[in-house]
From TrEMBL:
Keywords: NADP, Oxidoreductase. It comes from Flammeovirga yaeyamensis. CDD domains: carb_red_PTCR-like_SDR_c. This is SDR family NAD(P)-dependent oxidoreductase. GO terms for molecular function: oxidoreductase activity, acting on the CH-OH group of donors, NAD or NADP as acceptor. It holds the Pfam family adh_short. The lineage of its organism: Bacteria, Pseudomonadati, Bacteroidota, Cytophagia, Cytophagales. Belongs to the short-chain dehydrogenases/reductases (SDR) family.
Length: 244
C-alpha cells in the first residue's frame, strides 16, 4: 500500500521539489496550495513526470480549509503517513538582512505568526488522529537556522547580523512546538522533527543563496522516510543536528 504524504506550500520552491522527490520514491503526494491555478500547474508538471500527485487547496490560516483537508484525507485514505509543514512567509515589511526588533509592528508579528506558527499547530493537531493510524507517521516542520537561539546569540556566527525578528521568532516558536509535540508523541508510531533546509535559491532565500532547491529539499525528504528517521524531537540539516 502506498504511503500518503501531505505537503503544504507545494506549488513552488522547496515544497514542489519535496513533492517531486517523495513522489519519485513511490509515495502518493497530496500537494496543498493556497492558489488553485498555480497548484494545478504544479500538479500537472509532476504528473507529466509520472508521479502520483493530487491537488488540495489550503489557505494556511483558513480553518475551514484545514478541516476540509482533514475530512478529505479521512474519507479518501483513512490515514496520513507524512505531513510536511513547508508553507511559510517572511513579511515584506521585514528586510532579511536587518534587525527589526526595535521597529517591528504588532500587525507584522501577527501576520507572520499566523502563517508560520499558529496555522501549523492547528493543521498538525487536526491531522494527528490520521497520522496515528500510520505504522510510521512522520511530521516535518520546516524551520530555519535563523530560529536557533543558540546561533542567534553567538557573536561569531555568520548569521549574527541577520535578525528579521518576526520571522526568526516564529521559527523559534515552531521549534518549541516540535520539542513539545515530540515529548507528547513519545511511545507512539509518530515522529516529529524540525528541518533547516539551508540557505536555498527560493523566493524567500533569493538568487544569492548558495544552495540549489534540489539540495534544499533533501532534509525534509529524509525526515519524511521511516527508514531514515527513527529519532524524535530533533533539529536537522542534511543528517546533522542543529543547535536549538
Amino acid at each position: 500500500m502506498k504511503r500518503i504524504a501531505l505537503i503544504t506550500g507545494a506549488n513552488k520552491g522547496l515544497g514542489f521539489e519535496t513533492a517531486r522527490q517523495l513522489g519519485a520514491k513511490g509515495i502518493k503526494v497530496l500537494m496543498a496550495s493556497r492558489d488553485k491555478v498555480k497548484g494545478q500547474e504544479a500538479v500537472n508538471q509532476l504528473k507529466s513526470e509520472g508521479l502520483d500527485v493530487e491537488l488540495l487547496q489550503l489557505e494556511a490560516t483558513n480553518v475551514d480549509h484545514i478541516l476540509g483537508v482533514k475530512d478529505f484525507i479521512a474519507s479518501q485514505y483513512g490515514r496520513l503517513d507524512i505531513l510536511v509543514n513547508n508553507a511559510g512567509i517572511i513579511h515584506p515589511d521585514e528586510p532579511l538582512g536587518t534587525n527589526t526588533s526595535e521597529s517591528i509592528s504588532s500587525a507584522t508579528l501577527a501576520e507572520t505568526f499566523d502563517v508560520n506558527f499558529f496555522s501549523i499547530v492547528k493543521l498538525t493537531q487536526e491531522l494527528l488522529p490520521l497520522l496515528k493510524k500510520s505504522d510510521a507517521g512522520r511530521i516535518v516542520n520546516l524551520s530555519s537556522i535563523l530560529g536557533s537561539n543558540t546561533v542567534q546569540s553567538d557573536v561569531e556566527s555568520p548569521y549574527y547580523t541577520v535578525k528579521p525578528f518576526a520571522y526568526d521568532a516564529s521559527k523559534a516558536a515552531l521549534n518549541a512546538f516540535t520539542v513539545h509535540l515530540a515529548a507528547s508523541l513519545k511511545g507512539t508510531n509518530v515522529k516529529v522533527n524540525s528541518a533547516h533546509p539551508g540557505w536555498v535559491k527560493t523566493d524567500l532565500g533569493t538568487k544569492n543563496a548558495p544552495m540549489e532547491i534540489v539540495d534544499g529539499a533533501k532534509t525534509s525528504v529524509s525526515l519524511s522516510l521511516k527508514e531514515e528517521t527513527d529519532f524524535n524531537g530533533k533539529f536537522m540539516h542534511l543528517g546533522e543536528e542543529v543547535a536549538w
